[in-house]
Amino acid sequence: MNEANGSPRHCFIHFEQSMCSGCGLCVKRCPTRAIRVRNGKATIKNSLCIGCGECIRICESGAITASTSELNSLNSDKITIALVSPVLYSQFPGVLPRDVLQGLKNMGFTHAVDMSYYFEMFQWATAEYISRNRKTGESPWPLISPVCPVVLRLIVCRFPSLLPHVHPIMRPVALMARDVMTQFKVHYGVDDQDIVLYYINPCPSKMGIPKKELETAGTSADLHSTGALGINDIYGELSRQIKHFEKNDKIPFAQAGFEFEQCTSGGGLLWSMTGGEAEATGLDKILAVAGLNETITYLEKIELGLFNDLEYIEFRTCREGCIGGALNAIDKYLAKSAALKMAKTLGVGTRLNRERVLRLYDNNWFFPKTTPQALKTMGIQKERTFSFDELRMIEKIVGIIDGKNCGACGSPDCRTFAEDLIREEAAPDDCVYLKIRGITMDDILMRVKPEQDKD
Amino acid sequence: MPVIHKSYHVTKNDFIHAGEASIHVKNLLKSLNYDSDLVRRVAICGYEAEMNLVMHGGDGELSVDVSQSKVVIEVTDKGPGIADVELAMQEGYSTAKDEYREMGFGAGMGLPNIKKNSDEMTISSEPGSGTHVTMVFFCKG
Ligand SMILES: Nc1ncnc2c1ncn2[C@@H]1O[C@H](COP(=O)(O)OP(=O)(O)OP(=O)(O)O)[C@@H](O)[C@H]1O
Ligand code: SF4
Ligand SMILES: [Mg+2]
Predict the structure, then answer these.
(1) Is residue A6's pLDDT more than 60?
(2) Most buried of the four, A15, A94, B70, B129, by CB within 10 Å?
(3) From CA A329, how far away is CA A38, in angstroms rounded?
(4) Which residues pair with A315 in a beta bridge?
């Protein structure tokens, strides 16, 4: 099927048609109603996909995967840098983060950069913004964490009135991508084209990042060669590398050349779990919410004007936080226990110089260069809204169908099917309730067309 | 003038489902692409009236009539009613029980908020016969 509204966009999700059984589980699960079964196979409207990964989790046939990047520039003449989400460490219980980073280098990455440093930067900037916002009232309370991109896309798609609540500090991964690019260019004296960044993370929604992030950060680089890898993409090879030097333990650790290369902290691991970000801010009027349904419920309520006595809400659409991300390799509870243990071993605490962070803050280092609107639409397109008359027709069609939300039509529920009829993306015959009564589109239009209104 | 009419049953003391009617109304208006400020005002007022029903009123109904020019919300219950409506409309006046105050309600700001955020508001109540709140919101342009 064609895109809902024109310009195709890179999709986070890939459907392998030959493996799809057409069962419709994903259709019902999708929070933006982007999936349909047509001609026995699932199809997705790319422009509506927010990358939450729910369909990947629910699919029983293994037909749905995340569209990650190809890892093809290892051992090439490019400087290939892994940007590492600390969630990765939780996948290797008992292994020290620096050994995981070393494993990545053994796989062929020139450098492996840990993200905890940028979490700390983000935290400081957030605390600063909140304390200033108490005086300026620039943003409405509660601020909504920008960290989980699914939440941002959900807001763009379903809760646009909440956009002013989105915390305007650049996301940690954006700070990281920009900083790494700048520092390594200077260090090696090379151009953007010589550096390839791979963001290694558990989240299908981050595909296209850091490219997108660098763009919004205003980097002029030619970003043809940045990509993202799911943790499950590299897990096998990385485990082999780690086992290998655990056994031999004779590979000397290269001296880390950069401050942030050795900066793995326990705090970074806590960030990968729900509540970690909230805890790190040290603020009082703060809340952490995790899970897709939970997030949606809270966003609904913020729209009703609730929770304005809170200053900040951390949202993660995955249960337990990013540690429950769809592209992880091990179970989230095992990962959580591993992460908690490791956080204890490494200890938490801050290492940043507050004065320096404040200087950067006042130089607008933490704020995206492009307009907030550009950041915030993130390539999401809403479906066209219906006119008043069309909506009345849809209401009536739902009445005519008089169905049971069975989903056999390939749409998630009767109402969406009625919408699909009006959009001319489905035919009455797709619905068993209409088919057995022999109702055609002409019959339907006869009965619901506005001219026919007597009231 | 064509309208879309919807009504939702609201149950006294049911805090689990409280707010759902207002969320439905809000999403209906959003799907019609109404101006986001209007949607916000309707959502806030609907929610305050719905919560009043749940906390102070009795079982009842929240209904909405949407047309291109205006949105009308009516919230009706068959609860104890309000003896002195003028007093109830004042900021800070509340008879909310302690247990509700612990849940963050009872600031006595609900009815004043409705007054402030709607274009027209009428409230009629007789002790013993329930309460009826009507709110009207005009669409711009
Ligand atoms: N539907 C109703 N039935 C009976 N009494 C009501 C109803 N709605 C409001 N009242 C009375 O009016 C008072 C004021 O209502 P209002 O909504 O302004 O404040 P509140 O509900 O007490 O507190 P808040 O809305 O700030 O949580 C209530 O305390 C209650 O005594
Ligand atoms: S919670 Fe974390 S892993 Fe899950 S979608 Fe959000 S950012 Fe990605
Ligand atoms: Mg009230």
Answers:
(1) no
(2) A15
(3) 31
(4) A289
Tell whether the model's pLDDT for residue A256 goes beyond 50.
no
A185 CA distance to ligand 2 middle (Å): 30
The CATH number, out of the four listed (3.30.1300, 1.10.3470, 3.40.50, 2.60.120), of the domain defined by the range A79-136+165-267+325-368: 3.40.50
List CB contacts of A44: < 8 A, sequence separation 6 or more: A11, A13, A15, A34, A35, A55
Please compute Rg for chain B using Cα positions. Answer: 14
**Nearest to residue A356, comparing CAs of A119, A83, A125?**
A125
For residue A150 and ligand 2, the question of a CB distance below 6 A is answered with yes
What pLDDT, on a 0 to 100 scale, did the predictor assign at position A222? 40
Nearest ligand 1 atom to the CA of B104 is 27
Name all residues whose Cβ lies below 6 A of ligand 1.
Answer: B 48, 52-53, 55-57, 77, 79-82, 88, 93-96, 105-112, 131
Q: Model ipTM? A: 0.79
State the helix-helix crossing angle for A116-136 and A172-188, rounded to 10 degrees. 130
As a CATH number, domain A3-66 is 3.30.70.20
Q: What is the band of A220 on the pLDDT scale with cuts at 50, 70, 90?
A: very low
In chain B, what percentage of residues exceed pLDDT 90?
Answer: 76
- List domains and CATH numbers for chain B: 4-138 (3.30.565.10)
Dihedral angle of Cα A152, A157, A162, A167, to the nearest 10 degrees: 20
Domain boundaries, chain A: 3-66, 79-136+165-267+325-368, 388-454
CA of residue A121 relative to chain centroid, distance: 21
Question: By mean pLDDT, which of A229-233, A426-430, A446-450, B80-84 is the weakest?
Answer: A446-450
Radius of gyration of chain A (CA): 24
pLDDT tens-digit readout, B61-91: 999 999 989 999 999 999 999 999 999 999 9
Q: Which residues pair with A228 in a beta bridge?
A: A199
Tell me which residues have their CB within 5 A of the ion that is ligand 3.
B 52, 110
